[in-house]
Structures
1.
Amino acid sequence: MSSQLVWLITGTTSGLGRDLALEALKRGDKVIATGRARSVAKLADLKEKGADVLELDVTAPLEDLHEIAKKDLSEDGGALNGICVNNVTRMFMIYMQVGALCGTLCHYQVGTSRSICIDFGYFRTAFLAADQRAPQVARIPDYQETSQRAEAALQAYNGKQPGDPLKGVAVIADVVKGEGGAAGKPFPRSLALGTDCYTGAKQSSLDAIERLEAWKEVSFSTDYED
C-alpha cells in the first residue's frame, strides 16, 4: 500500500469526520477536508496542520460538484480513501473511480478498489447535544408525547455514549492501512464499531436466521418440482 494516502473527508468541522482528519494527518497522510461555506472557517486549524481545505456543499447541484471534483482531484490524484455522501461521491468517482455511501469508506489504488461499510454505535461526540439539531416542532399533535419521550431519551444519553471517538477513528485508519489490530487480516466488507453496534448487529443476524428457518418450507415451495 502507498506510504502516503489521500483522504477525502466530508463533515470535518466537527465530530468523527474531524477526528478522522486529524488521525490521517497524524499518520503522515494527505487530507482534503471539506465544509460548507458557512462553516469552512472552522477548518483553519486543519489547514495549519497540513490539510487541504475545500468548500463543499453536499446539497449543491451535480454540475457544481462536478467542477469542484475536477479541479481538486486533478491536483490530488493517487490513492483515495473517502467518506462521502450522496451526490458528492457520484462526482468524485468519475475522477478517482471510488464510490461511497454515508458511513461507507472506499479505498482506490491503480488497478484495485475496495469498499467497506462501517456501522457506528453511539460515540461520545456532540451529535446528541441539543444545539446540534433544529428545535423540535410537533407537526402532528397525536405524536407529540412520543416525540418528546424520544427527545428526552436522547438528551439523557448525551455524554454517556460508550464509544470513544479517538479510538474509533484510529481503528478506521488501521483497517484502511492494514496496521494495528487490522494487520494480517483480510479487508472486511463491513465493520461494526462499538459494543452496542456489535451486540445489535449480532442479535439482528440471529433474528434473521430464526426468521429464515421459520419460513423455510414456504420459501422452498416456490421452486419448480422437476
2.
Amino acid sequence: MIKKHSFLEQFLQERIKVNGKAGNLGGGVVSIERSKSKITVSSEVPFSKRYLKYLTKKYLKKNNLRDWLRVVANTKESYELRYFQINQDEEEEEDED
C-alpha cells in the first residue's frame, strides 16, 4: 500500500488539531504510534473517528493515491486502507451490455 508509513504518521502529527491548534497534539493528550503497517491514534479527550478519516483522505489526495486506495471502516473503532477493486467494476460493466 503506502510505501512509507512514516510519511502518513508525520502528516497526522502535523495536521491533527487539539484545542484549535495543529501540530501540538495537546502536550500528550493525543498520541500516534506506528508498528509495522499499523498506525494507532490514541486520545485522552473525545476524538472524532470521522476527523481521522478526513485527514487520511486528505493525505491520499495530496500524494495522488486517492485513485487507488480508499479508507474503509473495518471495525467500530478503526479504519484500514484498501485498494479499489477495479476488476469487479469492469465485469459489472460488461454484464450490463
3.
Amino acid sequence: MGKNKDEIPYYMRNVPFFFLTALLAPVAVLLVLLNWDKLSTQMRNNHLTFSILMTMLYISKILPDGLFKIIFAVFTWTLILFVTYIYFGGGRKGGKS
C-alpha cells in the first residue's frame, strides 16, 4: 500500500503543496528532495514534476518579477516571527504542562 498519511508532513500533502508550489516553486523542489524518503513513489513523482514545471515558469519570467521578492520577504518575516515565538516559550505560562 502507500505511506501512512501521518508520516508525511502537512505541507507535503496535495493541497498545501499546490499552494506552496504556486507561490514558491524553487523552494517546493527543495522540499521534495528533503522529504524524498517520506513520500510514496507516486506522490514523489507527481510533486517533483509539478514543482519542476512551476520552477520553469519562474525561470522563464512568465510570472511577475516583483512577486518572488514579495513572497520571499513575507516568508522570511513569518519564519523570523515563528522562531522568535518558539524561542520565547510559545506563549505558555510556566513551561510544560
4.
Amino acid sequence: MATSPDRTSNLRRLLRPVLAPVAALATLYGGFWLAGDAIAGDGSGTESARPGKRSKDANIIPIDDIKPGMKGYALTVFEGEVPDKFEIEVVDVVRDYVTGQDAVLFRSPDPRLVHTGIVGGMSGSPIYIQDKLAGALAYGYRFGKDPLGGMTPIENMLEVADLPYRPEVFPKTARASGRTGTAAWADQMLALGTDQLPARQVPEQIPGPNGMPSGGLAPIGAPMSVAGLSPHAAQFLADATGLVPVLGGGSMRSAPSSGQEASAGTRHKWTPGDSVSVVLIAGDNGAAPNGTVTWVGGAQQEKLLAFGHPMYGEGPSKYPIANGHVHTILASVERSVKLSSPRDIQGTMIQDRQPAISLRTDIHTPMIPVTTSVTGPDPEFKTRSYHSAVADSEVLTPPLVTTLMLDAIEEAGSDAVEVVLETRHEILLETSQGPRTLVLDEETYYPRGIVRGLAARSRALLIMMAALDNPFELASIKSVKQSAVVHYGAEVETIDRIRITNEVVRAGDLLEILVDLKPPRGPTRTQTVSVRIPADAGGERVVLELGGGEWITPYAPLPGNLDDLLDNLAASYPARSIIGTIYRPGEGLATEHGLVQELPESVLQTLSPGGSNRKAVHFKQAARRVIRTNSIIRGEASLEIDVRPAKAID
C-alpha cells in the first residue's frame, strides 16, 4: 500500500525521539567495534607503539633484531678501573618482562663467570651484539648453577637519558606511616595513645629483591661497599637503605672518597663499562652502592646511564656519584659481588627509573658534613674524631647520620657490663626563619652493655626525620656535630616505693613525699621530695606520680610552624632528675596557640568544636616540678590522694 509524502513526514516526526538515541547508540557501538579492530589488529595495520624511540639509531641494535643464538660481548671491571670483555650468547627474548619492557636472556662461556656466576656490581655492564649496543646486564638468578643473566634493552634505557634534572622535586621512598594530625601528636608528645608507629618497610621486607616476585629472574641489585663501619652499624645501615652491605674496607691503591667534588686533575673520563658508585657516606667512613656505566652521551659527554634497573625507583634524585675502583670479586654460591670503593665525586644521579639510573657529570649536589667524636671508658682510649659526609636525602639522611653515631658507640665500648652512654648532637638546620642550631644532650644507663637498637632510636633521629618530613615547609640539614662518651659503672637508682608523710592533705599544702631509691647493688636509701598541691584542688582526688626524667615527656602545644615543632621535640627532662606530677580530674587543651589548662567543661567544648577539622588535643591538667638528683633515676610510681579544702582563715 502506498504511503503519502505527508504521512511519511509525520511518521518520521513522531519517531524522531526514538530513532535519535538508537542512532547514537549505533554510532557509539560502531566506534567501539572499530576501536576493537584497531587494538586487536588484523595483520594489515601498523604495529602498536612501544617504548624505544631510538630504535633507528645506527649505533644500537633494536630488540626486534636480537635472535636466539646471536653472540656478542659485554664490558665490566673485574679488578682495578679498566673495563674488560667477556663473551655472551643470546638464549632468548622474554617479551613484556615488565610493562612495556622486554628482557634478553643470555649465557656467558667466560671462565670467570662460569666460576662466579652473574656478579652483583655488574648491573649496567654494556652488552654489544654485532658491535652495536644492545643493552645492559641487569638481571640474574640467585643460587644459579649457570652464568645465566638478563639484559635491559638500550631502547628503554635511552628514554631515561632524556629526562631533565628536577631539583624542585623531592622524592619520598615508600614507607609505612602511623596516625596523622592531632592523633599522631597525641601519640608521640602527650602519650595519650599507646599505638606503636610501624617502622618503614624496606625492600627486603617485600617478597623478592626490590619488590620483584621471588624465585625468578630479578634485578642483580647494587652491592653497597662499606668502609670504616662496624658490623652492627653496617647492618643498621642495610636495614635503613634496603641495600646489601659488603664489608671490605678501603684500598691501598685508591684513596676513599672525601665527599668533595673532584678537582680538574682528578676528573674522570667516562667510558661504557666503567665502575660507578652512588655515594651515601664519604670521608673517614664510607657507604656506596656500586654498579656499571652502560652508555655515555651528551654534547660534552656529560650524560651517563647505568645499572639497567632502578636503585629505589624514586624518580627524580640527587645522590652524588663517583668513579669506582674494584678490588676483587667475592665469589659466592648465592650471589657473587664486586668489592669496590668510590674514588672522587664526579656528578649526580638525577633520575632513578625502572630501565636505568641517569647520571650527570655537569651537575653537583653538596653533601652534609658530619663530625663524630668518641670517648671510651678506659683512660687509655683517647678521644677520636671522624670527619664524614652524608647524602642529602629526606629519607636517608637521618639514618645515615645515626649509622655514624652507632659506629662510634660500638668503638667506644661494646662491653657487656654496666655503662652509661652520654650523647650530644648539634644539628645546624635551615628553615624559613633562617639558620638555627639544635643542641640535644642525652644520658642513658645500660645494665648489661649498650643496646644498639635502643641507642639508634635517639631524639636526634626523630628530630632530623621530623625536620625533613614535616607538614609546614621545606627544611634542610646543613651540618651535624655529634659525640659519644661511655662510662663504666653508673650512679643510677630506681624508684622502688613512694609514700606521703602528711596525715591530711589540703589544697595549697606542700606535700612531703618519701621516695625509696634502690641502686643496682646495695641497700635502698630514702629521699624526701616535696610537691605543692594546687590551691584550688580542694575536694578533688588527684594522682601523684614520680618518675625519672628520661621516662617523662613534657607537655607541648600543637605546633603551628616548623620551628615550634622542633622546639617541642627538643624539649626534655634531664635523666638525673625526679619529675613530680600531680594529675587532676579536669582536662586542658594542647592547641596551636599553646597549652590551655584549668578549663570548665563548657569552655572546653567551645574551644574544641566537633565541626572543626583542627581539633585540639585534650590532656590531663597537671602541676609539675623538676627535682634535680646526683644519680640517673629510672622507673616511676604513683598513688591517689584525696585533697581536702584549704582551712578557712579566722
